[in-house]
Amino acid sequence: MVTCEACGRDVAAGNAFCTSCGAVLNPPPHASGTGTIERLPKKPGGLVSWSRKIPLITNPWLVLQCIFIPLGIGIVMGSFLSLITGGEWDLLIMMLIIGAGLGVLMLLIMLVLQVITGGGLETEFFISDEGVAHKAGGTTRTLDRVSAGGSAVLGSLSGTGAGLLAMSQENNVLVWDEVRYVSVYRSVRSVVFRSKYLISPVVLYCTDENFPQILAMVKKYAPAIATARI
Fold first, then answer.
1. Is the dihedral of CA 7, 11, 17, 20 positive or negative?
2. For residue 186, what are the CA distances in angstroms to 16, 144, 190?
3. Which of 49, 74, 122, 151 could link 137 by a cystine bridge, Cβ 3.0 to 4.6 Å?
């Protein structure tokens, strides 16, 4: 057993982080793994920031977004157009087909991107005693704008809406008081934070090395109602 200098708790030997407060016990001189840790705190509450390539086609969170966002936009747009045209529900069916086609296209694009980028899109992540945040890399921002612009030129309302929604989520911040739901996807080392409005979630894709530390910080700072199932 070793004693954490930050909180005084005993921690099993071999752990890199305190399982109580998330502080670094014996930080290695060089981190290795799926991402690059830019800064690690030696005291609880300090900012932790790192960068990592987000897996795409192998990422259940993103795959579900690619399926449900275009379909959801298609349902909303199709229902609206059907109502204002006096019950022409063929428009709803058409928008659903367009939404499904766009979802398939997005999945194919994700597959290609994961291959050509060697694992995914580079993104920055942040967590502290104040909240969580993520910041999209340059490649992601460019792709979002190309997607929205291309869909607008082609006249795809659902595609344009999905592109604009992606742009709005490039840089998201949530303070702990606003966090109501926390989901952990251990297979891809990710943690999703949502507010009570379920919009603009913040997703942290952790490295193999800092995943235990991030979970410890989440349990420490997030509202108990949000971490009950972790």
1. negative
2. 18, 27, 6
3. 122
Number of domains in the chain: 1
Are the CB atoms for 209 and 32 separated by under 8 Å? yes
| Per-residue model confidence as pLDDT tens digits over 55-112 | 778 777 778 878 888 888 888 888 888 888 776 778 888 888 888 888 888 888 878 8
Q: For the segment 165-206, what is each residue's pLDDT rounded down to a tens digit?
A: 454 455 788 899 999 999 998 888 889 999 988 777 888 999
Domain encompassing residue 105: 2-227
Instruction: Render the burial of 35-73: b for 16+ CB within 10 Å, e for the rest.
Output: bebeebbeebebebbbbbbbbbbebebbbebbbebbbeb
Q: Which tokens belong to 28? A: 């290695």
Two structure tokens written together for 49: 């920031």
pTM of model > 0.85: no
| Dihedral angle of Cα 103, 174, 176, 181, to the nearest 10 degrees | -10
DSSP run (H or E) holding 78: helix 60-84
User: Which amino acid is residue 16, in one-letter code?
Assistant: A
